[in-house]
Design goal:
The protein contains eight helices and eleven strands. It has 235 residues and is α/β, with parallel strands linked by helices. The longest helix is centred in the middle third of the chain and has 25 residues.
């Protein structure tokens, strides 16, 4: 096994499946089963989930809502997604805890770094909800921050394509796949791997990012076992 502890970054859009909004039950079940496969290898797992399938803070500006208010609404959307993922994981018999940066004592633990690490040491999966708890920061940044706080060895960024390309492969047939790239190249070429703040944090702390296709149900486990899957961002 290559990694001792990983942080999995899931976008909210990944939960929609073929739907245009919300959570698709079959897609959520498939993701939970993939996480189960990774857990069986013995690796420690933490997860950060976005909220774009329900609400995006950037949409608030277009609707005349204050950006900070919109971002808080987006954070609440991530909590809904995390509770749904927790439920699916627990149906598979996986001990799971949700920790949220916005305190909601009735439904989730507050984010406490030492408690999160202790949960993982006991073999539990920890799902981080509510982003960083601050407006103007994305869940990409939350993923990078939490990964460093818990001592993760890598961030696994799940996407709908096979990795990083020089342009959007869903729009351009001539897009070229990039198997390995540096943090600086990502920033300089403005490639949409993660937002610039998250990339800068990973670069500063030498935390590698592996971008892989979530649609292939074996990919997540293959990455953890050290196979060459997707694109690795490092250096």
């Amino acid at each position: 096994m290559t990694y001792r502890r990983i942080l999995l970054k899931l976008s909210g859009e990944a939960l929609m499946g073929k739907e245009g909004y919300g959570i698709d039950p079959d897609t959520m079940k498939e993701i939970a089963e993939q996480v189960q496969g990774v857990k069986e290898t013995g690796v420690g797992i933490a997860i950060v989930v976005g909220g774009g399938n329900i609400y995006r803070g950037m949409r608030a500006v277009q609707q005349g809502i204050d950006r900070a208010t919109g971002d808080y609404m987006g954070m609440i959307a991530t909590i809904m997604n995390c509770l749904a993922l927790q439920d699916n994981l627990e149906r598979l018999g996986l001990a799971t805890r949700v920790q949220t940066a916005i305190q909601m004592a009735a439904i989730a633990e507050p984010y406490i770094r030492r408690r999160a690490i202790r949960h993982m040491e006991k073999g539990r999966i920890v799902i981080f909800a509510g982003g960083t708890g601050n407006p103007f920061f994305t869940t990409d940044t939350a993923a990078a921050l939490r990964a460093m706080e818990i001592g993760a060895d890598v961030i696994l960024k799940a996407t709908r394509v096979n990795g990083v390309y020089d342009k959007d492969p869903e729009k351009h047939d001539d897009a070229t796949f990039i198997p390995e790239i540096t943090y600086m190249e990502v920033l300089e070429r403005n490639l949409k791997v993660m937002d610039a703040t998250a990339i800068a944090l990973c670069r500063e702390n030498r935390l590698p990012i592996i971008v892989f296709n979530l649609k292939d149900r074996n990919n997540m486990k293959r990455v953890v076992l050290g196979e060459a899957v997707g694109t690795i961002v490092r250096g």
